[in-house]
Amino acid sequence: MNEHVSTIQTLALELIAAASDERTLDEARVSVLGKKGTLSLAGAAIKDVPGDQKAAFGQALNTARAAITSALEEKQNALLEIADRAALSGIDLTLPARPVPIGALHPLTLIRDEAVQILRRMGFALADGPEIEDEFHCFDALNTPADHPARNEKDTFYFNSGKLLRTHTSSVQVRMMETATLPIRIIAPGSAYRRDEIDATHLSVFNQLEGLYVDTDVTLPDLKGTLEYFFHEMFGTTTEVRFRPHFFPFTEPSFEIDVKLQVKGQAPRWIEVAGCGIVDPAVFEAINATRKDRVLDHGKVTGFAFGMGLDRLAMIRWAIKDIRLLIENDIRFLSQFA
Ligand code: DAH
Questions:
Q1: How many separate domains does the chain show?
Q2: What distance in angstroms lies between residue 118's CA and the mean position of ligand 1's atoms?
């Protein structure tokens, strides 16, 4: 009986050695170890083996199975290695890899992050508000009368509900003053929307950064110092900055800020970059009325506010001539910022 098993083993090992691919190896495995395989059938015959020989027979079976299994495994590995080598033949592993394109931040993101960093160093904290606003936060609380042109349907995107897409980030000022305790020192970068005719300097969605500082002793020199420092950090300390009297409903006095642009080969020119001013007491009063307290008592509390166009800052920084480039996602344009 045991000789029979050893013959099976010898034949099996020959079959395995002769197998030249996965398929013939698998056939060899089935023909020996499969349900009707030679070794399985021999094993089934153990019941006919006389009792005193059963143990020796069982051992012979186990030894044969172990030898066959490990031969199968070895052969399997050897075949895999041959296949791997064949797959790699003709491939030059010393060739340099294909370059992987690396993404980059959008210029608007770069300029926003830089503006935020400068202002955070001065103690301003980030604030946020909804882009779908109501008239109270966008206009009424900001002392903007019902007949102000900004409120016109021709200039502003209104929803049927009476809500609107905020026309400026100044609405975030109101939201902060409604809930905050003093001092309030916030900045709010974000989108604003207007029904502007689209051209090289206008889009119907653009980006602003709003700032507000309210406390018991905020003065006009604080405003000037803060924004002058900001634009010097942004465009270099030799950049000239001027404050030009202007009108905004929510600040009094109000100014527009210009920086002097020096482009090589061109005459220097002033370019408007922000609006700002001392918070109008009427704004504090409107908010006190909704807060139902007098935390913003204009006898005791003063503040300054500013709003700047981030698209404009990016256009100045990189001499971008057409604002539409900022939203077209043309890779030839964007890859210059990588
Ligand atoms: N909201 C104004 C605009 O969109 C900009 C502005 C001007 C914001 C004066 C201010 C400010 O906070 O004080 O044109």
A1: 2
A2: 19
